[in-house]
Structure formats: C-alpha cells, structure tokens
Amino acid sequence: METIRIIGVPEHFNYVWEKVVESQPFLDQEIKLEWQNESRGSGEMNKAIREGNADVAIVLTESFVKDKIEGNPGSIIGFHVKSPLVWGIHVSGRSKVTELGELKNAPFLISRFGSGSHLMAFLLAEREKWDFSVLEFEVIGNMEGAKKSFISDIPKTFLWEKYTTKPLVDQGSFKRIGEIPTPWPCFVIVASDESIQKHREILRKLRDLVYEKSSTLRADPDFPIQLSDKYGILQEDIQAWLKQTQWAEDSRVDLEIFENTMNILKRLGLIQKKISPDNFVFKPLVQAK
Prior knowledge:
With about 290 residues, the chain is of the alpha/beta class. It has ten helices and twelve strands.
C-alpha cells in the first residue's frame, strides 16, 4: 500500500479535501490518502514539498510563486480557490489602537518568512504608503503563536484570513481594524515532482474528485452547518464567506495570473527575477492558457 500525503491549513477552505481523503477513493489501487494539518501556513508547506515530506500541498498562490522562483521543484496541477483571500488586519484585543495608521511602525507577526502573512505585509504597506523597506517582523509560527505574542503591550500587527480569526475577534482576544484582499486567486494545488512522476493519473483523479465534492457540498443546505460545527465559526459568517468564495471547478489555469503575481512581488522587492509562467504548472495535468 502506497500513501499520498496531502498537506493544508486546518481551515474551512480545506474541508472538501478532508472529506475526499476520508472517502479513500483509491484503496482498490493500493493507494491510501493521508491528510496532514499544517497550522504554520504556506511557507511551511513549501518547505514540506521541497524536502519530500508532502506529496500534495494546498498553498497560497503568492507564497508558491515566490518559492518556485527560488527553486521549489513542485508544480501547480490546478487551482483550489479562485477568488481572492481576504486578510484581516488584527491587533491584540486589549490594544488601544483603533486606526490602521497607528500601526505604521508596528512589527508584523508572521508564521514564517515567505508565508502569506509575510508577503501581504508588504502589499499592505504599499497600499497605506508606508516605507516597506523598514518593515519589522516577528516569527510566531501560527495563530496560537500570535495569541501568545499579543500578551505584550507593544502594538503588533497580525494578518490572517478574516473568517479563521473571527471567533477570536468575537471573544475579544483579537481586534480587527481593517482588511486587505489579495490581487490574485488565493489557493493553488501543488504536487511534488516525485508524486507527479509516480502518480500522475491518480493526482488528476484526486483533483477532479475535489472539484466534484466542492460542487456537491455547495449544493447541500447543511454545508454551512457542517463548517460552523467543525471550525467554530458562526453560521452567518460562514454564509458570508461562501458568498464571496469562488471554487475551482476544472483544470483551467490562466497563466497571466502568475505573470501579474510576479510583477507585484518584484515591484515590492520580494523576488529578484521573473520566470516564464509556464514553469509554474505541470502542463499535462492542466488546461493552460
């Protein structure tokens, strides 16, 4: 029995992946699917693909684009979510900060360098006309690390997906003082080079099963209840999130998205060079245009 290890953040975006893994659709072919939660975000998942500790990863687009340029051997085999990710801009619930401008000189809490929380800090600084060449960062690993760091009275900024943090905002642990959406689709499906060579057709079927399952779940009136129960997010917030979320439904990939993402990352000084958009995808498994 072989195992395909799939890694992703333990958040509502990946519920459909967990359901497909639970169904174990390839046991008759002696292949077991294994889901691994990674709370430390896309930077850690890129590392897992690089080091051979994961076969498939559900990664933030901007994080993989940067890491691929820097040598990640993995390839995109499709999108998972095509709509932007809306990042909440958070401070400690005890903080006296009420305006975004008060955070101009505050350090950013990030899961790790190269993660979405790191890269989006530069985009926020650009939007607010802050000097992003002097940004300061504190690596905290995950949301639990942010909670611990917020014990300090020093003002700090934490960017994380707004509905994931909503229960902590409701509890008063975090305070959200703004939002910033990504200018690109939020999640790509990345497969390691080794898994593509060994299991190309299984990966194609797996991806398509996820697309089918997401379509089925969206049509289920109990879907918001399932998500609310599992992730502790209010049903009204789940409903709002579902309304703004566009799931990938097929293998079509617009390569211009990667060109635009690289242009933004280069403008922010986060990458030193660009590569051909073709290099991000494994073309036999996607409909690239």
